[in-house]
Design a protein that fits this description.
Layout: H1 21-26, E1 32-34, E2 54-60, H2 66-77, E3 83-87, H3 97-104, H4 118-129, E4 134-140, E5 145-153, E6 158-162, H5 170-173, E7 178-183, H6 186-200, H7 205-224, E8 233-236, H8 241-258, H9 263-267, H10 269-272, H11 286-289, E9 292-293, H12 298-308, H13 314-332, E10 338-344, E11 350-356, E12 360-367, H14 374-380, E13 386-393, E14 400-406, H15 409-412, H16 414-417, E15 420-425, E16 428-429, H17 433-444, E17 452-460, H18 465-471, E18 476-483, E19 485-489, E20 507-511, H19 517-522
Parallel strand pairs: 2-6, 2-7, 3-6, 7-8, 9-18, 12-13, 12-15, 15-17, 16-17, 17-18
Antiparallel strand pairs: 1-3, 4-5, 10-11, 13-14, 19-20
Bound molecules: adenosine-5'-diphosphate and the ligand O=c1ccn([C@@H]2O[C@H](COP(=O)(O)O)[C@@H](O)[C@H]2O)c(=O)[nH]1.
Adenosine-5'-diphosphate binds near residues 60, 62, 63, 192 and 238.
Amino acid sequence: MSSELSGDDLTSVASTLPVSPTRDRFQPKKNTVLVSHGRPPWYDEDGKPTGDAYVVAVSGGSGSGKTHVARQIVKSLGSIPTVIILSQDSFYKYHSPEELELAHANKLDFDHPDAIDMPMFAACLADLKACKQSNIPVYSFAEHQRLEEKKYLYGATIIITEGIMALHDPVLRALYDLKVFVQCDSDLMLARRLQRDVKERGRSVDGILDQYLRFVKPSYDNFVRPTAAYADIIVPGSNNTVAIELISAHIRRQLQQRANQFRQKLAIPHLYFNGRSGASTPDSRLEDLDLQVLPQTPQLKGIFTILRSNSTSRQDFVFFADRLSTILVEHAQQYLPYFPKTITTPVGVESHGQILNAKHICGVSILRSGGALERGFRRVINDVPVGSLLVQSDAKTSEPLLLHAMLPVCVKLRHLAKESWVFLLDAQIGTAAAAFMAIRILLDHGVREERIIFVTFLVARGGGVSVLRRAFPRVKIVCGAVDDLMQEGWLEGYRAEGNPEGLGRKIWVMQPGMGQIGDRYYL
Ligand SMILES: Nc1ncnc2c1ncn2[C@@H]1O[C@H](COP(=O)(O)OP(=O)(O)O)[C@@H](O)[C@H]1O
Ligand SMILES: O=c1ccn([C@@H]2O[C@H](COP(=O)(O)O)[C@@H](O)[C@H]2O)c(=O)[nH]1
């Protein structure tokens, strides 16, 4: 495991580490990922990001209400996709023992622009804006120090960054779509700072006042207040509900302009992409789709006959799905790098064989139905992490939404992601909307396209696979069978069972298909 991140292989790091009671009590929870209604596609049919995340910067003096404004904007946005609040405080520089001594005596200037690692702040923000992940530093106000751990952030449609120097640096300013300055009376800022620093940052009143007169107030006058000139909007530091409403209305309008009707286009590519190379129809030539289909042996056909039948018991379904996923993953392993290796056998004879030579391998299943391939995956490739992505359709628009991403560390860290081989697991590729999103997520993290191996039971020839192929030609797709049809309709028994999700709503189904694989495997 990398020394940069510790904690469990799959969880977001900062919260999992043992921390001192003092640190725990005073650690500000400023950098937050707020997911409300899932993240809609941030890329087009060519697989390329359609645009950057929308970045709002909120600046103002200490205690002016920047954090409050950032949180109120999120609240007022209501039903919105993922928002990241990124605090400039995380980017205070690492302090030497001598500097720490000064800091604890309130004699270190934290209010000068040089106190903040602006290049690092700009680099992390640029990554997040470009829809990539970032592992940002964690800062302790109680210890006046940057901690060892890092916090993994990914997947924002909107980023709200806040800090006293947020508008100071021209490189940072160039990254913002909207610049806000919170204007507040100095006495109100001081009163708020006193209350907050005693309660949340473990400070004494004397110390706070000492630091305020020595550094905070002069710096506000010299460096912070002048940056109000760069702001698009000045917001009052109290009674600011109307200003916040205006800002969120503006952001909502910007997001609406970026919306993309994605699944509909993928599901019937011959209607939307006619004339463009690679658009498939139910009669598309299999060779053009470049799928790695398992050899259609009698025993494989036997497995599919059982899996497709609506009279198969759950117990049998699970047994044969596990068997099929084991065969698929075994077959897919041919894409991993193997090298010649000579060994000596128990009878003392040399034998020339092959050995796997891949540093980082992991699985990522697309929930729920991708879970049906996990047991087979673990049987063939044991002792590697398996992450998951929860992608579901928006009930109103049918667009895919990313609701949750839990990725292995070898994907979360960009320098490892470049070297990693990732097996994406999902039961079928129909409209290909979920597959599209999952591949885009891995590419955002820096996984190489040719190192993504998509393993699936079924692919619909007339569905979105052709568009997926054209967007990501180097991804390997290993499947057990190919179905011809992709139609808008109801699954047999789906409505009859009174499934509230399915009631009155058509979904895209492949035929002959295997039904709702997640339901059949788990319920
Ligand atoms: N508009 C407001 N109305 C009421 N209280 C506010 C308002 N803005 C900020 N506060 C309070 O003032 C304190 C400092 O605000 P905060 O947002 O943390 O300041 P900053 O991030 O600018 O240092 C917090 O306790 C917060 O609840
Ligand atoms: O170790 C530190 C680092 C910073 N400060 C003070 O924090 C404020 C900025 O944070 P806000 O949340 O915007 O108030 C800045 O004025 C520094 O003086 C600190 O006291 N110790």
